[in-house]
Amino acid sequence: xxxxxxxxxxxxxxxxxxxxxxxxxxKGPPRLTFELNARKTLExxxxxxxxxxxxxxxxxxxxxxxxxxxxxLNDDVYDSQNRLFKYLSKKGIIxxxxxxxxxxxxxxxxxxxxxxxxGADSAETVVFGVGKFMEEERPYFMYxxxxxxxxxxxxxxxxxxxxxxxxxxxxxxxxIPVNPHSTYYRNxxxxxxxxxxx
Length: 198
Known about the structure:
Blueprint: E1 4-8, E2 17-21, E3 32-36, E4 38-40, E5 46-48, E6 54-59, E7 64-69, H1 75-90, E8 100-101, E9 108-111, H2 122-156, E10 161-162, E11 165-166, H3 183-186, H4 188-196
């Protein structure tokens, strides 16, 4: 039976774990290797933290996949959970009828099929499926992060020009005086009625 090999990366890749699927002695087809930001708990669960909205927990002892919100619970979190479980169900990894809310607020969990197929371990298959989902999602959340950075840059460093060109700074601009006790405010009703003819 194939094992999950977890090797902690170099110092430059702090926090990344390389996951290799397949036996090292296997002389057959090439093994699959990809990097995930993942941790293995003392209980044996694998926590995958690559997604910006959710954390995915694979629980081999209970044959479950649990997703929880990272920071805040909003519509993006539920959409990400929904996309993950739809992806895993289309690949035949989880049972679609087993998706339900978990005992943590805002979490979703599903049971995965615990039988082996062609000698593949079910926990390896789930981790591989989640890894492929993260690869497909990565361009979308990189694009969203770039949009947020651009908007922050636009707000913190605005341009000093308008469509009409540069606007010079003056001591007094506009028609409303700064002092609210000026004659403009006291005589407003009189001046407006004179101008309108009422």
